Structures are given as C-alpha cells and as structure tokens.
Amino acid sequence: MSNEEKRTLTFEILRYNPQIKGDTPKMKKYEVVEAPGMTVFIVLNEIREEHDPSLQFDFVCRAGICGSCGMIINGEPKLACRTLTDTYPKGIITLLPLPVFELIGDLSVNTGKVMRQMSERVESWIHDKDAENVDLTRIEERMEPEVAEEIYELERCVECGLCLAACATKRMRDDFLGAVGFMRLARYAIDPRDKRSGKEFYDIIGDDDGVFGCMTLLGCEDYCPKDLPHQTQIAYLRRKMALGK
Ligand code: FES
Fold it and tell me: Fewer Cβ within 10 Å of end Cβ, the chain: N or C?
C-alpha cells in the first residue's frame, strides 16, 4: 500500500481525569495514518507515543485473553485489541470508556472491583459439605468428560465486562448481577463436586437482581468476545430456579 493510498483516521476520544480537581469530560480529536492490520489498540499506543502520553487505557495481553481493553467503540462495547480499524469504512471512530464501571481516567475503568464483588456474591468456589475432612492424598474424583467439557466452555470467560456494558438492566439497576455472574454460577451449578442445594442457588440469584431481572434483550450474547452461550445459561438457571433444583 503506497502512502497516497493510506487513509487518515480520525479518533474522537473521551478525555477526563476524575483525579484532577476541576477537570471536565471533553472529546478530543486525534488523526492517525492507518497501517495494514491496524487495531484500535495499536492506534491508542500510537496516540500515546506520538500525541499525548497522558492518555489512559488498559491492556495486558494484546490478544483478546486478559479482557482489559474493553471500551465503547463507535457505540458498541468491544475489545480494542480485537477491533480492526478497517471495519470502519468512514475512518471516523469514537472511543468512550465502558459504562457501569468506576472510571479511573479517559478509557480506563475499574472492572476488577465489580468482578470481585460478583465472585463474592456467587461464592465462586466449590462448596463441598465435607470440606473439613479434606484428604489431600486422596485420588482426584473422576468426572465425566462431557461434564468437564461443559464446565471448561463456561470458564472461557475473560471478565472483560462487555456483557455488563451491553446490558440494559445493568444500566438501570446497579445491583443486577448480570451475565458474567450467571455464567459463573452456572459453572458451579453443573459441577457435581459443588454440593449446594437448589435453595442455596435460589438465594443467590432467584430475584430481580438475579436471573429474573434479565429482560432477555441479550446484549450479553451479542457482544461477548468469547461467544459464550449466555442465552442458554440464563435459560438453564431460570428453569433451575423455577423447578427449585
Ligand atoms: S489487551 Fe488483553 S484482551 Fe485486549
């Protein structure tokens, strides 16, 4: 691609640092020359290196694995490292931080705090009633390969928070657990080693802040970067709650 053929992209990015007294949110424009295979993540690094070192955004892996780089890209929650600039033919791209989460600054939000609250709320560990009598020398319990596969599928969640940012209920009700929590609980509900009763699961998600608050708009399913089966798991949990087992 010759230099004349290269597009100049315009990025409009929300700039706001709540740590700076008196700072107010504003949109700032940056121009970047597109390169082949360019992602929004590459653009952000270029802006930080060549235009403004104070730009805040999160990343770790650059490969869609750590879930850190979620943001609103032209109105949709996406991972910056998995979003190619050439999917935007007009070359104008707006970047906003994910809603629902506490803003750290610019495009950086605190997803860790919400994910930790979620883990504590669903008690994200195997509940074995005989836990006090654990024998560490015992051979690991056998699990059917199909069940292990099913659990593995649900554990692919990277806790990026896009499902919460895409969720209309979560936007209206802060206490709504949301798809990431349902996915986590479903993982334990199908695990035969977890001995929680139907009532115990019901006590966690059997109300409007739990699985019955979902309006079934399924933004979670549409925007999950790992294509996790949110719709199926929400239906599974609802049925489990209704049947009480
Ligand atoms: S940087 Fe890890 S998912 Fe994008």
Answer: N
Q: How far is CA 95 from CA 20, 72, 78, 153, in A?
A: 21, 6, 10, 31
Q: What is the pLDDT of residues 53-112, one digit of tens each?
A: 999 999 999 999 999 999 999 999 999 999 999 999 999 999 999 999 999 999 999 999
Ligand 1 centre to CA of 11 (Å) is 20
Q: How far, in Å, from the CA of 49 to the mean position of ligand 1? A: 19
Which residue minimizes the CA distance to atom 3 of ligand 1?
A: 64
Output the CATH code of domain 8-109: 3.10.20.30
Expressed in angstroms and rounded, the spacing between residue 131 Cα and the centre of ligand 1 is: 36
| 27 bridge partner residues | 14
Q: Report the predicted TM-score, pTM, of the whole model to 2 decimal places.
A: 0.92
Residues having CB closer than 6 A to ligand 1 are: 59-62, 64-69, 79, 81
Q: 122-243: which CATH number, 3.40.50.300, 3.20.20.70, 1.10.1060.10, 3.40.50.720?
A: 1.10.1060.10
Pocket test for ligand 1, best of 39, 45, 61 (most atoms within 8 A of CB): 61
